[in-house]
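Honest question from a wet-lab person: if I give you the sequences of every part of a complex, can you actually get the arrangement of the whole thing, not just the pieces? Trying it with mine:
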Amino acid sequence: MSSSSTKVVPVVDGLFTWPSKSPRLLGTRCISCGSYYFPQKISCNNPDCKEKKVEQVSLGPRGKLYSYTIQYYPPPPPFRFNEPFIPYGIGLVELAEGIRVAGILTTNNLNEIKIGMELELVVENFYHDDEGNEFVTYKFRPIS
Amino acid sequence: MRKVCILGTGEHPFGKFEKKSVLEMIMEAANKAMNDAGVEWKDIGGIGAASSRFSGGMGWGLTANELQQAIALNGAPVVNCSGACASGGYALHAAYDMVAYGVCDIAIAISGEKMPKGFIPRTPGAAEDITDVDYLRWKAIGMPNPAYWAMEACRRMEDFGTTEEHYAKVAVKAHKIGAQNPYARYHQVLSLEEVLNSNMVSYPLRLFEICAVSDGAAAIVLGSTKEARKRTTKPLFVAAAAMTTGRFGDPQIRIPEISTTYKADGRYYSEVVLAVEKAYEMAGVGPKDISFVEIQDNSSFQELAWPELFGLMKPGEGDWFLDHGETDINGKLPINPSGGFLSFGEATTAMGIWQVCELATQLRGKAGPRQVRNPKVGMAVTLGLGANGTAVILKL
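Yes, you can. This is the full assembly:
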């Protein structure tokens, strides 16, 4: 869809690595207590953690589906979508780091979605703006 | 600390009231509660009020001050409480404290809200970057509130074998009861088929299994035991008014977060579970003593899952209770004998007081066709954005 006059841009800066052939999510790890956070946080919020020294880390790219839903109506702005609206899957995905992250699934077919299935992170088209610029977001794709 | 009693309750019907201000609705509920209690404004020594983001309070959440300025500049101390959907529970807590600690002998808790039509909009002026998860959940994913409940509901199906039909049955029960409550917004009895045929919103939850937003108001007059005994031989005690917040490690996908830093020992729905545990402790009761509950059924999911988390039934047993009518009016553990959020719709900040009005109505044996059999102890639980939780226990 993108041409020389239009751009491909991440839907929000600082949420995932971009550009990247093997995308990762950008999160935070507490060096002191080992807890992971997504998106990036200014502090750890574990009440038992005293030092709360945090660093930026990349998360993923693989995870297991903990739960999911299929969203059947378009949410209000600032959500945007390409017409016509197509129901989309949302997964809660358990990453190896021990954190569950919500994100769009690349499939909305209930027969293809199973709790416990393996998924990998991808960055794909989300919507186009009025000028034809392509906005991309992170999604989870089943590993077949 | 002194014991605190319910002196009177007042509910404004729920629905959409285009021509009425929220102040008028609150005044109506307050007047009803005061008439029920047999008190006048000159008797009121303190006010606990729920602050709304959407209506009233002069734009600052000054709900109590606005009411005073309209009806009685009585010089009493007021506490305006902001706790999102748990605000009503906080307001009740504030009024409870005033009586318990002897600030006054009679206090009133008030709440009222007119909700915007359609979707709840984002707060104007909020950040639009990675520092605001409420921005990210819309902008980067498209995750409205029902999607959160749906993901919990979907996991429950995996863990316990709960079915789409179970979620529909909760709505059938709610509407059957709500049809008999004059204050409810929806008075239509729905069949299982009608619920299952309603539009899928966020799989596995359908339109009739998710609460709408409404306008509504409620008020409660609280007083010392001495004040209660002037009015009745059977005082109704506020045995517990607990407020807590969420705890680290909770595995729930909490609105508006886009991730969960869960821990193996994290408490699921910690903000409400901890409030309930605190309330049991304050009241000196256990789950077995609870006659009935009013819980925040934003969707059918909560009504099945929460009673288990509160120890009222074993994990996964909620479906069996529902299938066997044991959560209905005449069951072992009636849940939401008011008709619940599903038949009222949510006037978010009013719900914590509205729920306790229902507890009182039931415990005083005044619930008419939806009267629970011989109740002794009732519990109400709310959850608010920001990981706020409240639990109230009333005891005869």
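Two things worth pointing out. Chain B touches chain A at residues 118-119, 121-122, 128-131, 133, 135-144, 147, 150-152, 154-155, 158, 199-205, 247-249, 251, 253, 257-262 (CB under 8 Å). The longest strand of chain B covers residues 4-15.
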